[in-house]
Amino acid sequence: MPKVHKIKLSENFARDVLEGSKSFEIQENDRGYQTGDFVVFNVCDEHGVPMPRHILNDKIYKITYILSGWGLKDGYVAFGIREAE
């Protein structure tokens, strides 16, 4: 069964995710990310304070691809995302 991962995202990257130019995320793999899981972003300002009214917080993204190794720090993954339908 797919999981829903709630992760913080800096406001600096939020617009790029919304526009689709940032279609990936790099995270420590402490949650067991899997293809088919979902991501909900919690947009935060430059001080790490959540921005509860940010438009990206209401969107759900599906993990479409997982990459580990290949130059990534041990224990980290890069995963492709696209807005869920």
Protein architecture, described:
The protein has 85 residues and is mainly β. The protein is built from one helix and five strands. β4 (61-68) and β5 (76-83) form a beta hairpin. The chain is globular. The two termini are 17 Å apart. The model has no long low-confidence stretch (mean pLDDT 94).
Task: Tag the structure with descriptive keywords.
globular; Archaeosine Trna-guanine Transglycosylase, Chain: A, domain 4; 1 helix; 5-stranded mixed β-sheet; 11% helix; 5 strands; 85 residues; mainly beta
User: Main beta sheet: strand number and arrangement?
Assistant: 5 strands, mixed
Contiguous uncertain segments of 5+ residues? none
Fraction in beta strands: 35-45%
The CATH architecture would be Roll
Q: What proportion of the residues is helical, as a percent range?
A: 10-25%
Shape: globular
**Count the helices. How many?**
1
Could you give the count of β-strands? 5
Instruction: Tell me the count of domains.
Output: 1
* CATH third-level topology: Archaeosine Trna-guanine Transglycosylase, Chain: A, domain 4
- Please tell me the overall pLDDT: 94
The rounded distance between the terminal residues' Cα atoms is 17 Å
Global Rg: 13 Å
